[in-house]
Amino acid sequence: MDDELRRGFYRQMVRIRTYEEAIRADYHADKTPAWDIGAGLIPGEMHLSAGQEPVAVGLCAHLTADDGLTAPHRPHHLALAKGVDMRKMTAEIYGRETGLSHGKGGHMHLFDPSQHFSCSGIIAEGIPVAVGQALAFHRRGTTNIAVAVAGEGAANQGAFHESLNLASLWKLPVVFVIEDNDWAISVARTASTSVPSNATRAAAYGVAGERVEGNDVEAVYQAAGRAVARARAGEGPTLLEVHTVRLWGHFEGDAQAYRGDELAVAESHDPIPAYEAKLRADGVLDDATVEAVRAEAATEVADAIAFAKSSPEPSPASAYQHVFV
Amino acid sequence: MDDELRRGFYRQMVRIRTYEEAIRADYHADKTPAWDIGAGLIPGEMHLSAGQEPVAVGLCAHLTADDGLTAPHRPHHLALAKGVDMRKMTAEIYGRETGLSHGKGGHMHLFDPSQHFSCSGIIAEGIPVAVGQALAFHRRGTTNIAVAVAGEGAANQGAFHESLNLASLWKLPVVFVIEDNDWAISVARTASTSVPSNATRAAAYGVAGERVEGNDVEAVYQAAGRAVARARAGEGPTLLEVHTVRLWGHFEGDAQAYRGDELAVAESHDPIPAYEAKLRADGVLDDATVEAVRAEAATEVADAIAFAKSSPEPSPASAYQHVFV
Amino acid sequence: MTVTDQPAAASATRRLTTAKAISEAIAQEMERDPDVFVMGEDVAAYGGIFGSTTGLLDQFGPTRIIDTPISETGFIGAGIGAAVEGMRPVVELMFVDFFGVCMDQIYNHMAKIHYESGGHVTVPMVLMTAVGGGYSDGAQHSQCLWGTFAHLPGLKVVVPSNPYDAKGLMTAAIRDDNPVLYMFHKGVMGLPWMAKNPRSIGPVPAESYEVPIGKAAVARPGRDVTVVSLSLSLQHCLDVADELVGEGLEAEVIDLRSVVPLDRGAILESVGRTGKIVVVDEDYRSFGLSGEIAATIAESDPGLLRAPFTRVAYPDVPVPYARPLEYEVLPTHRRIREAIVSVAGR
Amino acid sequence: MTVTDQPAAASATRRLTTAKAISEAIAQEMERDPDVFVMGEDVAAYGGIFGSTTGLLDQFGPTRIIDTPISETGFIGAGIGAAVEGMRPVVELMFVDFFGVCMDQIYNHMAKIHYESGGHVTVPMVLMTAVGGGYSDGAQHSQCLWGTFAHLPGLKVVVPSNPYDAKGLMTAAIRDDNPVLYMFHKGVMGLPWMAKNPRSIGPVPAESYEVPIGKAAVARPGRDVTVVSLSLSLQHCLDVADELVGEGLEAEVIDLRSVVPLDRGAILESVGRTGKIVVVDEDYRSFGLSGEIAATIAESDPGLLRAPFTRVAYPDVPVPYARPLEYEVLPTHRRIREAIVSVAGR
Ligand SMILES: Cc1ncc(C[n+]2csc(CCOP(=O)(O)OP(=O)(O)O)c2C)c(N)n1
Ligand SMILES: Cc1ncc(C[n+]2csc(CCOP(=O)(O)OP(=O)(O)O)c2C)c(N)n1
Ligand SMILES: [Mg+2]
Ligand SMILES: [Mg+2]
After folding, report:
1. CB within 8 A of D307, min separation 6: which ones?
2. Which of A163, A267, B194, D277 could disulfide-link to A168, CB 3.0 to 4.6 Å?
3. For a substitution probing ligand 2, which of B123, B149, B180, B243 has the most ligand atoms within 8 Å of its CB?
4. Please, which residues 117-176 of chain B have a Cβ atom closer than 8 Å to chain C?
């Protein structure tokens, strides 16, 4: 695999992690001493994706701005890898007028039409919307595809089933990606899912199914490449499950007592140091590049956050706008 | 297979068909000249099951009154085979005070607690209820099981997926039965379902799956026997699909233009004459028995319909009762 | 609120059923705009269980008139995704009573995406659905439920009572950049297989036109009592009003035509003149449309009413099957007449 | 309607959060009745995202406190089937905003089976769910929606505003042979991680007791204006009422506690005395609870109101994320105060 490509993967993963570490810091910064979910610079629920960067990066490397993607409640890694503007996205998370939705959406509702990117906070319900984007792309004779991303917990929701059947039946250019991070809040995948791999479920719809183990960005890149190629070639949908890891809580503030020893194991599987070591061993990365990558990410993130913080809050009266066109 | 058992299958199938022919006649009897769905002795939608008797008969031969069954909008064959009282059921269909629900339910809403039998007119939504009955039976340590019956069209509804995953995960005593009659109103199964057999979908839940071809009551009996035995033995659910035939319209009044030549083919596959011929060939049935069976069925059906017609209509004021206990 | 958007005597000599008026509106929009397409159960060969898409398959073929599996969450969601990408899908939910299997797509997505996106994403989609009872279809196939949808912000809700409005409102709904829920009562469709009021067949111009969404119509002017209704009940109200003329009682009958936006001005203007109101609503009585009309008046000026606010609505019971039970609870001619007469103080 | 079912000073010295009061009621009913069990997402080890089941797993173990997959139609339907067989499930829908993925089970099955069966089948099930906003959780995690459920017949709908009622209403709900929707506002739970009103912690008797479903309470007697509210808004109303005493304005604050059955008598009795009403409702303004209260008064006697009917409700917009936007549309202390003062004519 090309060195520049691999460095690019690394760069993008570091960029996403740097971003989420900064968001995490600001999220907690001013909620103390009496921690209040509604208080502070960033209020509300905050679902961060640390550990799941390989999925977003390996997948989105195959997508253009004209391809669609629907993300779930945990969207930052996907948004950034897809190409959503970091400044506007950050301003949205900080609830500012300059945000993607002028502060109306928040972190679970990032909408960027220029990237055909959207989220839904309702489990699995973003999936049918991606099927509809694919239907539109298909009807218009483009080679664009749509990607629906959801967690392993979402694969037990009816919308998952209906969407796969529909996309297969109509041979639509959709890639269904399941991020299996072993947990749905406190419910382990073994307590939610009757089969060890969701890839098995592809057979129920007559579509290609594949599960990627190891949370390795390069393996994701290759599997996603096959799926995207099938979709673009008009060969119909693919169900791709990636076994990844949730390094942090379900949402910020989650004490994770329910994880027990598994947490330490998970933390020892951070994909970024692992990939960095691999690239160093292969001579693709050296100290200087690593430094440069980190510095570049830090600068971009600092700029985006500064932009958000310096942006005005929306005017209260704007709450009444945009119910209807 | 025991002769008496086989004669019993024949008797039950004839009984059901005789019943539905009589209902069909009364349904149309007084809707003319200007056919009005709301008029007549039996108003409203009427979904008859002619052709699907082998499913109900082969399946219910394994069930006791204490086992649960949830039926869909097309419930008569299942209700009669399960043991629901024909008189009360008929009175309900005729909208009488003596009906199962005192006229409040109608033909899509037959409830008989003594048989743990219920229906729902919402596609696939009776399935989770059967899972719950099985959950109760299981928690109470009984060996009773619950059966969820739905059409092939229902297998593309989210409730189907969620119920199978749940029942498998919790190893509940449920048998999921799909009646594949090739049609969902005017939509052919090939236009609704991405796989040729729903039995394939069993793999998506790690449960046993079987498809019975030929609409043969004995084959259904054997397959259902395996499924019921697994459930009673605590080995979890089974997904059983039976390829059957819809001899009449989706509902009464359906002109079925959409079926084209397939209709004639279907009509040539009436399972009852076929089974009668088979039993005659095997020397299990003779003219006398056939006559007796038909006469017995005619008498029982005539009695039930007479009971319904002679029963009072519910008092208008009772419309306000039974919203709450 | 005026009556100007009623058909001018000359302009429409053709008489169509409401069902035909709806399918004609869809056909004309499909000819105008290649982005319009139809999806739903039994909309193709069958032509829609209640005739809303009859003939469209022959005219536009299976790539634009698409039968779906019984996967309402899947295909309504697909309609939303297509609309987000600029298509203009007309999606049918066969009976509104089935909304529970797909409500998340309808109200958390179809209705909210525009707002959540800060106005950057539009969802120009029409969801049409059959409502209403009166033919013994039981508790799961006979409801109106417009109050349920109107309570949740983000959807326009239109409810025609006659063929003319049905065509014009469908045309307006398809052209609207907002999501529109189009609710047609089976009893106004003029179906050959269901008892019908003659008002279900009426004059419809051949050319395409819009009836504005959010504008009520004075279906019948009068000075004594304001009768506010919609859909099939409106037809009953007109029958009763005609009958009462003989008794010297002039009821003003207002056809809401849209529930969202609700034409509050039209209601207040009429009640301001009559001081008396009867709301006739086949939807459930409590926590719905009829209550909102009471609030509209009481907020404006409780003194407007010179007689108690009166509703002829569906009592808060599920829909019973047997005819004597269902006709006990439906807003029938008898109940409407008694209410108007008693409010009028005759 | 009286206040007799408030805690007698002596009988309750313990102070609990509303969350603890709820889980205690469930625990006591589980001890009484082996048929009671709990199902839902994150109800076991996590103890319920909003603490409604905290401690129950340790006490009753995983066979009676059951975590589910994210399959609301599946597990709510399973609850219904178990209830039909005589169990008494307490099922949690994590946020009411998710009802759209499982509404068919809730309203076509849980709510209608008893009626459809002509009274022969009962569904003794409690569906509990978290409602409400105020902490920037956005359009899909902040709604109240009690009006949506109240509009559909067959469900009792209870909405506690304080720990005492929360325990008594949960006990009554579990013992009720009807399906009950139990809606707790996150803001009244007394959660350690969310800003709270001191009223979210209060005296709760250790022994088991019922608060009758369908009975409102005069949370605070007064002569000048009737303020009808529920849930978290009720707490704000009491704060405002206390504040207004200093200005010689005595507001009577009525806590509905149940939306279905609605205690219409309690509202009419109070309005009959004050002639003025302010309804404070965090649910959407139109086509919901506040309108039904207006209709209740106008049907009884429009002359009862000596000032325009006034609502402080959620305007008909989806819930916005940013704090200044959300607090513009929530029924805040400021909006409630302004409304009461203006209705009182001060
Ligand atoms: C329909 C629905 N049910 C429940 C929830 C609450 N909820 C939010 S995230 C979550 C867990 C999702 O798990 P998974 O799909 O594995 O995604 P992950 O959080 O692990 O990324 C749940 C239950 C929801 N948002 N929508
Ligand atoms: C959720 C839902 N969607 C649509 C319908 C309307 N409908 C009633 S029967 C039917 C076809 C069902 O087909 P299938 O499941 O194969 O059963 P069959 O009628 O063939 O016995 C449809 C679409 C419904 N009742 N419920
Ligand atoms: Mg997960
Ligand atoms: Mg079928």
Report:
1. C302, D275, D276, D343, D345
2. B194
3. B123
4. 120-125, 153-154, 156-159
Q: Which chains touch D (3 or more CB pairs under 8 A)?
A: A, B, C
- Beta carbons of B324 and D114 less than 8 Å apart: yes
CA distance C191 to chain B (A): 9
Residue A169 and residue B157: Cβ atoms within 8 Å?
Answer: no
B157 touches chain A (CB under 8 A): yes
Looking from the CA of A243 toward its CB, the CA atoms found within 13 Å total: 12
Atom of ligand 2 nearest to the CA of B73: 9
CA angle D154, D215, D112 (to 5 degrees): 5
At residue B138's C-alpha, the angle toward residues B135 and B142, to 5°, is 140
- B72 CB within 8 Å of a chain D CB: no
**DSSP annotation string for C117-151:** TTTS-----EEEEEE--SSS--TTS----HHHHHT
The verdict on B193 touching A (C-beta cutoff 8 Å) is: yes
Q: In 3-state terms, what secondary structure has residue A72?
A: coil
Whether B185 and C194 lie within 8 Å, measured CB to CB: no
* Whether the Cβ atoms of residue C280 and residue C228 lie closer than 8 Å to each other: yes
What does DSSP assign to residue B160? H
Residues in Cβ contact with B239 at an 8 Å cutoff, skipping those fewer than 6 apart: B164, B176, B178, B198, B199, B201, B202, B205, B207, B208, B209, B210
- The reply to whether D37 touches chain B by the CB within 8 Å rule is yes
**Tokens describing residue A155:** 């694969």
Residues 6+ apart with CB under 8 A from B292: none
Output DSSP code: residue D36: E
Phi first, then psi, for residue D279 (nearest 5°) are -100, 125
Which residues in chain D belong to E strands, given as ranges? 15-17, 36-40, 65-67, 88-95, 126-131, 156-158, 180-185, 201-203, 217-220, 225-229, 251-255, 258-260, 277-284, 310-314
Smallest Cα–Cα separation from B178: which of B215, B153, B158, B206? B153
- Please tell me whether residue A37 adopts helix, strand or coil conformation: coil
Residue with tokens 């709806």: C22
- Cβ contact D218:D252 at 8 Å: yes
Residue C141 catalytic?
yes
Is A128–C115 a contact, with Cβ atoms under 8 angstroms apart?
Answer: no
Which helix (H) or strand (E) segment is B239 a member of? strand B238-243
- A317/A23 Cα distance (integer angstroms): 28
Q: What is the DSSP letter of D313?
A: E
Task: Enter the pTM of the model.
Answer: 0.98
Closest atom of ligand 1 relative to the A151 alpha carbon? 15
Estimate to the nearest angstrom the gap between the alpha carbon of B197 and the chain centroid. 20
Quote ipTM for the complex: 0.98
Per-residue pLDDT of chain A (325 residues; tens, 9 = 90+): 899 999 999 999 999 999 999 999 999 999 977 899 999 999 999 999 999 999 999 999 999 999 999 999 999 999 999 999 999 999 999 999 999 999 999 999 999 999 999 999 999 999 999 999 999 999 999 999 999 999 999 999 999 999 999 999 999 999 999 999 999 999 999 999 999 999 999 999 999 999 999 999 999 999 999 999 999 999 999 999 999 999 999 999 999 999 999 999 999 999 999 999 999 999 999 999 999 999 999 999 999 999 999 999 999 999 999 999 9
Long-range contacts of residues C241-244, Cβ cutoff 8 Å, at least 24 apart? C241/C340, C243/C337, C244/C337, C244/C340, C244/C341
What are the structure tokens assigned to A199, written together? 């890839």
Min Cα distance B193 → chain A (Å) is: 7
How far does B81 lie from chain C, in Å, by closest CA?
24
